[in-house]
Amino acid sequence: MDIQSLPEPININLPDADLVYYPHFFSTEVSQNLMQALISHITWKHEKITIFGKKVLQPRLTAYYGNPGKPYAYSHISLDPNPWTNDLLFIKNSIEDISGHRFTSVLLNYYRDGHDSMGWHSDDEKELGINPVIGSVSFGASRKFMFKHKKDKTLKSSIMLENGSLLLMQGATQHHWQHQIPKTKKPLGARINLTFRKII
């Protein structure tokens, strides 16, 4: 599988953020093949998280893969990485080549339809260090990815994350912004998102 000729990246101009978007980083054919491989071969889990003291099932399926000895914790969940698969290494190597960053792990989210979602959050856990770089790859149905500034409540934005796209979130982005994937009543197909990160 090869990456098609890359279009020029799109710089998303938000204050206090460094965001670069590649709408068609992987070709349609490669994206479809990877989507099916991930659905079939990833060890998906339906984890519970703690919200306001109550344990509830996450509205999506998740999985965590990466280098040995690089656990990750969020929302009172502690995750030990599964070993890299060939498909995940292909995706990882591809985005490392273009970004110049090296990633140690990936958190996968499987949104089965428009009812599955991700609430407001920042990828700012202490394991990620200062100014973490997040490489977010999407396969399947396009979903709206929303931003809101942590201090200036008037600053909001959104982007449609398309099949085969790569969004790099860098610099001080996680310090100043939260993001989410909202639920939608529109009939949508499945989507898989992979957020590559470096655990220090």
- CATH homologous superfamily descriptor: Alpha-ketoglutarate-dependent dioxygenase AlkB-like
> For this structure, what is the CATH class?
Mainly Beta
- The assigned CATH architecture is Sandwich
Give the termini separation: 31 Å
Q: Which topology does CATH recognise?
A: Jelly Rolls
- Over all CA atoms, what is the radius of gyration? 16 Å
Strand order of the largest sheet: 1-2-13-10-15-8-5
Computed structural class: alpha+beta
- Percent range for β-strand residues: 35-45%
Q: Mean of the pLDDT scores? A: 94
Unreliable spans are none
Please count the helical segments.
Answer: 3
Order of helices and strands: EEHEEEEEHEEEEEEHEE
Number of strands: 15
Helical residue percent? 10-25%
The total domain count is: 1
Kindly list the characteristics that best describe this protein.
seven-stranded antiparallel beta sheet; Jelly Rolls; 3 helices; 200 residues; single chain; four-stranded antiparallel beta sheet
